[in-house]
Amino acid sequence: MIATGVDVTKLHKMEKSLKESEDSFKRLFENTHDVFYRTNGQQELMLVGPGAQRLLGYTAKEVIGKPASDYYAHPEERQAVVDAIIKYGEIKDFPAQLRHKRGYVVDVAITSKVILGIQGEILGIEGFFRDTTEEVNYRKQLIKLASTDELTEVLNRRSFFEGANQLIKLVNRYSENCLLVVVDLDYFKEINDRHGHLSGDNILKTIVSLIKESLREADIFGRLGGDEFSIIFRNCTLSEGYEICSRTIKKIKDTKVPMPNKEKVSLSVSLGVTPLTAEDNPFVLALARADRALYLAKTKGRGCFAVSPLDGGEPFLPLHSEWQPL
């Protein structure tokens, strides 16, 4: 009887310890910011922590039994996660994007491992995912700050050169027609000296805004420094480039910017144009040609564009370049 009493006492202690462990796990499961999940071998959700409702808007009841891929912003991305887990046995902080019940994207990092049966068969996957939206947005902001001109919000010189050199490789691979255009503001120093640098900054931003109206999503636009900018028009023939340049020059000429003293300043730009080819490696080869064309446009009255040919010939003013000396 005494021995039995001891056994019962030990059993009670074990039950108490187990209950405390279960309570501890339950508190962790319910209160952690990370969201626990488990799937079966068919990648259907079998267990999801309550944090899923906070992060994705779904209750556990809504998602249990559904394919995990249903909650990815890009369902095929789930397969990439599964493939990585199966290949390595586990993953840690694997980046992915889930979709909130309201439709917006949530960036997450997934830490998971495969669940194997006694025969080595895959029974499912379990792990955690955590919200990384703020981290991702912060990294994007840092990248933007590092690659963007602070005043005009176009690419800075370094990033523009990087983009141009990468594009040259694509030109070589796909025989893509591209045009390089160098843009220089006319009489900008005089405007700065007369009206001040704040007014000068406002004019730079106005010019950039007007140029952007002629750009397509694939085009590259950057500030080389001071009042000089550069554009690469992708999939653009020389004749199409002529039309874009003429239209842009006219649009800028038709714009007047008010100054603090109520005076309205007329704007003008000169452009240097040249085709961009796979032979322009490094990119400065094409830039030198465009600069020669820009110099001609400047010396011929400004407010116009000139073209440098690929054959090394002298830059020229196209006959239908609509320019008027100022």
UniProtKB/TrEMBL annotation:
Residues 21-85 form the PAS domain. It is an enzyme of class 2 (transferase). GO terms for cellular component: plasma membrane. Its EC number is 2.7.7.65. It holds the Pfam family GGDEF. It catalyses: 2 GTP = 3',3'-c-di-GMP + 2 diphosphate. One of its GO terms (biological process) is cell adhesion involved in single-species biofilm formation. One of its GO terms (molecular function) is diguanylate cyclase activity. Residues 176-310 form the GGDEF domain. This is diguanylate cyclase. It comes from Acidithiobacillus ferrivorans. The lineage of its organism: Bacteria, Pseudomonadati, Pseudomonadota, Acidithiobacillia, Acidithiobacillales.
